[in-house]
Specification:
Layout lengths: L11 H11 L4 E5 L5 E5 H17 L7 E5 L4 H12 L3 E4 L6 H11 L3 E4 L4 H7 L8 E4 L9 H4 L6 E3 H5 L16 E6 L9 E5 H12 L11 E4 L6 H4 L1 H8 L2 E4 L6 H10 L4 E4 L1 H14 L8 E4 L6 H11 L2 E7 L6 E4 L11 H8 L4 E2 L4 E5 L14 E6 L21 E9 L5 E6 L4 E3 L2 E3 L1 H9 L4 E11 L3 E10 L7 H7 L12 E4 L13 H7 L9
Parallel strand pairs: 1-11, 3-4, 3-5, 4-8, 5-6, 6-7, 10-11, 10-12, 12-13, 13-14, 24-25
Antiparallel strand pairs: 1-2, 8-9, 14-15, 15-16, 17-18, 18-19, 19-20, 21-22, 23-24
Helix pairs in contact: 1-2, 1-10, 2-3, 8-10, 11-12
The structure holds adenosine-5'-diphosphate.
Length: 546
């Protein structure tokens, strides 16, 4: 017997229409690429997304066509999210921090038809345009006054159009088409730290239910009383879904544009009364350093989502104890839209001591409804949830990838579960803690050493700004940990002092064999420490114990 409720497909266009109709005066504020602050409302965003939909239809964009963007977090990018997916085309956000050849490879693999881009990326687009095989139209996301002199740009970027001119003549009325909710809506390539990048192709259904689940109180807790500033880029897994969950709940949005330094972000937090934010640990490192240097406070910020890589406990402590900001430690990946787990306490934890609560808060948290997880050993046998046994983390759920775009890499699932490539423990209460990425774990004498645990201890030292631990070949133990450290400016620190700091905090055999001081740790395109690069840089490193 079928239920008797209306059957309406879950479509992304429903989100913008809901926001425009029920939160028409809620603001979207952007630091404009052209300079200054741009502000408008969900009502305006809805109108402009519809104008864009009309323009796209006119220019021949059809259901299933891939349309690429190279853009920062801003209002025009937001309009593209809805205009493109809303008509049934596929919004392909490309990470501009990748190498130009990689970007061209990705755009050709996706067979992108049109490329929308911010002014910042004009030189990049000029460089890649000749390499693009399917992209025939280029749209600069600006107004006529900021368009480059066509005589100069035209030679390099064929068919260059102006975003504002493209949408200006179009009506702001448009009836969004209805189609199967399993239709592809957006495409995001993994950063390709191993092999060629692979595309995760989200659907309208997966996106809408992910947005609903992300907004829940024990997930990211987004509401119509919030002002949310995603520092995490819209080209990095849809700014962790916030580009959808904010309009879904009617939260005010603040887009930081291209200026992601500590000062610019803090200025926006204060000027716009931001209550919640989200970003990778390296972004917050910059912000906290700036705040300490200038003795600044947050007057409205209540919580921040930190994920993308492990958030060091010292950073969680600093946010919570020094600034009164709750850290929502979250874990996920491109293949998971991205949310998998978020850390929030349960009622039974409220009576625990601060230290006991903190021991839970440093984990990556509990599974969000919609995601199931398990840990298995190398033979696939499920391991117990005791907070000690660690194994390969597997997930499944309606917003987890089933296969990659164009079947790249074959069938990724093992009996219906997606292997995340992460190694983790799960406690009896269901709190998951990442011990490492399987390729970063240090294999010493047949036992595993967690590089994340060692890094977390190192960054708790007051003279350490950043730390990375990698495995270095060892004649007796196969691999031993090498600690690579960037000191805080103006601070002194010796190898011996730092190694002494580990005493009593870890098993003796986990102690790094050496410390290498360096000026900077290489970061990848999503702001994470690039351990592949570090391993190359320190290849053949002679450990004193070898
Ligand atoms: P890529 O694999 O291209 O770097 P993702 O951004 O999808 O792209 O990264 C997902 C990976 O990031 C996860 O598999 C995990 O290794 C790591 N990660 C994400 N969040 C956390 C976290 N809170 N703690 C530890 N690792 C994390």
């Amino acid at each position: 017997m079928l239920g008797l409720m209306q059957s309406q497909p879950l479509l992304i266009s429903n989100i913008i229409e809901h926001a425009a109709r029920h939160h028409p005066d809620t603001e979207i504020v952007s630091r404009a690429i052209e300079g200054g602050i741009h502000r408008y409302t969900y009502l305006d965003a809805g109108k402009r997304a519809r104008k864009l939909a009309n323009a796209l239809g006119k220019s021949g964009v059809a259901l299933g066509d891939r349309i690429a963007t190279l853009a920062w977090n801003g209002y025009r990018h937001f309009e593209l999210y809805y205009g493109i997916s809303g008509i049934g085309a596929v919004m392909h956000t490309v990470n501009p921090r990748l190498f130009p050849e990689q970007i061209a490879w990705i755009a050709n693999h996706a067979e992108d038809k049109v490329l929308f881009f911010d002014l910042t990326f004009l030189p990049l687009v000029e460089a890649i345009a000749p390499l693009l095989t399917t992209c025939k139209t280029f749209v600069l996301m600006t107004d006529r006054a900021h368009m480059p002199e066509l005589s100069k740009a035209e030679t390099k970027v064929p068919n260059l159009q102006c975003y504002e001119e493209m949408i200006a003549p179009e009506p702001d009325a448009f009836v969004w088409p209805e189609f199967d909710e399993n239709t592809a809506s957006s495409l995001c390539y993994t950063s390709g730290t191993t092999g060629n990048p692979k595309g995760a192709l989200y659907s309208h259904r997966s996106t809408v239910i992910h947005a609903l689940a992300s907004a829940l109180p024990d997930t990211l807790n987004c509401s119509a009383r919030d002002c949310i500033l995603p520092v995490v880029p819209m080209f990095h897994v849809n700014s962790w879904g916030l580009a959808y969950s904010c309009p879904l709940v009617g939260a005010k949005m603040v887009f930081p544009g291209a200026q992601l330094d500590g000062k610019s972000v803090h200025d926006l937090f204060e000027a716009e009364k931001v209550t919640m934010s989200a970003g990778v640990p390296t972004v917050w490192l910059g912000l906290l350093t700036h705040m300490k240097q200038h003795n600044l406070r947050f007057s409205t910020l209540k919580s921040t989502v930190i994920g993308g890589s492990s958030c060091p406990p010292a950073m969680i402590k600093s946010f919570q104890d020094e600034y009164g900001v709750k850290v929502l430690h979250a874990w996920g990946m491109t293949e998971m839209s991205p949310l998998g787990t978020v850390c929030n306490l349960k009622t039974k934890h409220l009576g625990l001591s601060k230290e006991e609560q903190f021991a839970i808060e440093v984990t990556q948290g509990r599974a969000v409804f919609g995601v199931d997880m398990k840990i298995v050993d190398d033979t696939g046998k499920e391991l117990p949830w005791d907070g000690k046994a660690f194994g390969n983390l597997m997930v499944k759920g309606p917003w987890v990838v089933r296969e990659y775009f164009k079947g790249e890499g074959g069938d990724p699932l093992i009996e219906g579960w997606f292997p995340t490539g992460d190694v983790a423990t799960i406690s009896a209460d269901g709190y998951m803690q990442i011990t490492d990425r399987s390729k970063d774990v240090i294999k010493s004498g047949g036992e595993w050493i967690s590089s994340i645990d060692l890094e977390n201890i190192a960054v708790a030292h007051p003279a350490v700004q950043q730390a990375a631990v990698i495995g270095v070949l060892h004649p007796k133990w196969d691999e031993r940990p090498l600690l690579i450290v960037v000191k805080r400016p103006g601070m002194d620190l010796t190898r011996e002092e730092l190694l002494k700091f580990f005493e009593g905090k870890i098993a003796k055999w986990w102690l790094p064999d050496d410390v290498a001081f360096t000026d900077a740790i290489p970061l990848g395109a999503t702001g994470k420490m690039l351990k592949t690069k570090l391993r190359e840089q320190f290849k053949g490193y002679k450990l004193p114990t070898a």
